[in-house]
Structures are given as structure tokens and as C-alpha cells.
Amino acid sequence: MRAIVYHGPKDVRVDSVPDPALREETDVVLRVTRTAICGSDLHVWHGAGLGASGFTLGHEFVGVVLDVGRAVQTVKRGDRVLACCTVGCGACGACRRGLLSGCTRFQAGPAGNVFGFSHELPGGQAEAVRVPYADANLFAIPSALDDEQALFLTDILPTGALGAELAEVSPGDTVVVFGCGPVGTFAQRAAQLRGAARVIAVDLDEERLAGARSRGCETVRGGEDAAARLLETTRGGADCVIEAVGRPELVQQALFVARPGGRIAVIGVILQAFEILWPLAFAKNLSLRTGLVNPQTQIPKLMPLIEQGRLDPTEIITHRLPLDDGARAYEIFAHHRDHVLKVVLSP
Ligand SMILES: [Zn+2]
Ligand SMILES: [Zn+2]
User: Fold this and answer.
1) In angstroms, what is the span from residue 155 Cα to ligand 1's centroid?
2) Residue 268: helix, strand or coil by DSSP?
3) d(CA 232, CA 142)
4) pTM, whole model, 2 decimals?
5) What is the distance between the alpha carbons of residues 269 and 249, in angstroms, rounded to a whole number?
6) ∠58-61-67 over CA atoms, to 5°?
7) Nearest ligand atom owner, CA of 88
8) How far is the CA of 108 from the centre of ligand 2 (A)?
9) Residue 331, SS3?
């Protein structure tokens, strides 16, 4: 089959690789119908030291069930399903707490059991993919939703919602969101749905700021003086700050921008150690939370909003390309070319 394979920094190629097959009786093999490139795939593309190459990328995909292991109970051949980006067994202590990414029974590679970061758990930017522990990690797509409407439930929509949840966004709150990329956009949407009075979007890209304004956000241009302007417009600080980019300096800005007693959620992916201004967090009684998404716990809350038309995840799609254009798609997304916000690929 065809798959997007990581060969080294800034070198991904569409290769022919062996077809996936059932390995355990709890596995399912899917024929992928839509897949997307995520900001965290770009960490790999940039060569984020995962110490391996030659694996298939991609953790955002939906498809049709091709093959079903004997122990699988919740899906059957021919079902349309979405796969959660994080994989767990569904039965251990961590999984039962909803933290499947921290599963103690299933551990794949260095990246918290996420598809497409290792040989142990190859990704879904491919014509087909094996999904372990299918009962815990697959969700049926309701017939009313098309594949693209369901696609972002695999990761970025639950990640955005997790940001609003960790920051405890409540009715009437003023919420600052650093980042107007796909995850930032969904964090802004989640804050609006939780009843925020003001959602202030921050980004360096004027076009992305214009997009945020069209979705009902206020905007502030990012940069070194952004914190001062945010403190001014919020009259002393925001109730909630969500970091949806993955940059240490934005975590520092969040400490300045949160009001005393404010709540900060960091959902951007940061892979290096860094210092934070601890005395500021201490003196302002700030809450600072972070975490890797577990879509399994968010999907039951988000899917109905899409079905009711209160949330349209497809609003972020700017590019639809064939899987065979995968290498070019990564270039477009990595370099913010051609007004890109989100790229969807069709195998
Ligand atoms: Zn992702
Ligand atoms: Zn588990």
C-alpha cells in the first residue's frame, strides 16, 4: 500500500510499504478514507529527535473497517469509524481514569502511545492502518456525519476542548488563546461554547487573526509586547489563558497575562525542558495545567455538538489533496504557504 513515511528531517516521502495485518485478536485494520496533517507531525518533520526513521506518519484518520480481530465486540467489517490519536488498552487503571495515553499495558514508542511517531504504532497517513485495542480506541461515525465532519474528533478538536476544560473556562470569563492554528481555533470555539464573554485570540499571522475575528473573537497581534496589550484590554488580566502553539516564551507570557487566581492551560506541544517564572506564578496564585489529549473522554461530549450543527469542524479545512501529494502537503503546511490552515489528504 501507499503511505507517507518519515525518512529524516524535512524528508517525508510517499512510499510503498507492506499492508497492515491483524496482530492481536483485539486489533482492527482500517481502510483509511481521510487523514490530516497535524502541527505535531511537524515536530517529526523538523526532526524532533525521535531516534528512528522509516515509520508511517499520521495520527488523525477515519476509515472503514476492513478486518476485525476475534475479540473485538464494538465494530464490524464495513463500519465507518474514527480512531483516537492516543491508544490504550481500555482496561488498566490509567485507561479507566480516561488517561489512555498513559496506559500501563500498551506502550508504543517515545510519544505517549500516539499513532505515527514510531515503528511500534505506525500512523494513518496511508491507505490502511492497524488499530490496537479497537474496542477502546475506535468510535462509530453516525450516518448523519460525513468523514470530514468526524475527522478532527481524532485529535485537534478534543485537544482544543481539553484546553478550555483544563483552564476551567466558565460563563462570563475572559479567555486569552495563544495561537490561531487548528488547535487554537478549536480552543477558541470550545471557550465560546462554554459561555466565555470574551475570547481574545493572539497570533503573529494577520490572516489568521482575521479568521479569528470572523469567528467572533477579539484579536491581539502576538510578539514581545503582546502581554502588555493583553493586560490593558483585559484590565488587569484574563480569567483563563490557553497556550495552543507550543512555545516556552508563550507560557511565560501566559503567566503575565493571567489575572491573580487565573487558570492557565498549556496544550501546545513543547518537547524541550524550559524555565518558568515561578515567583510570578506563586505570587499570583495561578493554576497551571497541561496534558496530552485523550479523545476517548471528549468525543461523547463533542460529537453531539457536531450532529446538532452547533460546531462545524470542517471550517478550518483549507486544502484537500491526494495522499500521493503528501510530501508537498507537508511543505505547504510547514511553511504556512498558500493561506493554509489545515490539510486533509485522501488515499
Ligand atoms: Zn494531531
Ligand atoms: Zn490501559
Assistant:
1) 5
2) coil
3) 45
4) 0.96
5) 13
6) 105
7) 2
8) 12
9) helix
What is the Cα–Cα distance from 234 to 198, expressed in whole angstroms?
A: 9
List of E strands, the chain: 2-8, 11-16, 28-36, 60-68, 80-83, 128-131, 138-140, 174-178, 198-203, 218-221, 238-243, 258-266, 287-290, 319-322, 343-346
Cell triple for 121: 504504532
Shortest-distance ligand to the CA of residue 111: 1
Identify the bridge partners of residue 238 per DSSP, sorted by sequence position.
258
Distance from the alpha carbon of residue 86 to the mean position of ligand 2, in angstroms: 11
Rounded-to-integer distance, Cα 85 and Cα 154, Å? 6
Distance, in Å, from the CA atom of 10 to the CA atom of 15, rounded to the nearest integer, reads: 15
Dump the DSSP string for 275-308. Answer: ---HHHHHHTT-EEEE----HHHHHHHHHHHHHT
Q: What is the DSSP string of 49-97?
A: --S--SPBP-SEEEEEEEEE-TT--S--TT-EEEE-SB---SSSHHHHT
The x, y and z cell numbers of residue 286, run together, are 495561578
DSSP class of 126 = B
3-class DSSP assignment, residue 135? helix
- Number of the ligand closest to the Cα of 57: 1
Cell of 62: 477515519
The pLDDT tens digits of the residues spanning 251-302 come to 999 999 999 999 999 999 998 899 999 999 999 999 999 999 999 999 999 9
Q: Please name which of 57, 54, 24, 33 lies closest in space to residue 136, comparing C-alpha atoms.
A: 24
Distance 137 CA to ligand 2 centre (A): 11
Alpha-carbon gap, residue 269 to 283, rounded angstroms = 26
The pLDDT of residue 283 is 97
41 torsion bin: left (phi>0), alpha (psi -120 to 50), beta (else): alpha
pLDDT in tens, 297-328: 999 999 999 999 999 999 999 999 999 999 99
Reading the block at residue 80, the C-alpha cell is 465507518
Rounded-to-integer distance, Cα 241 and Cα 199, Å: 10
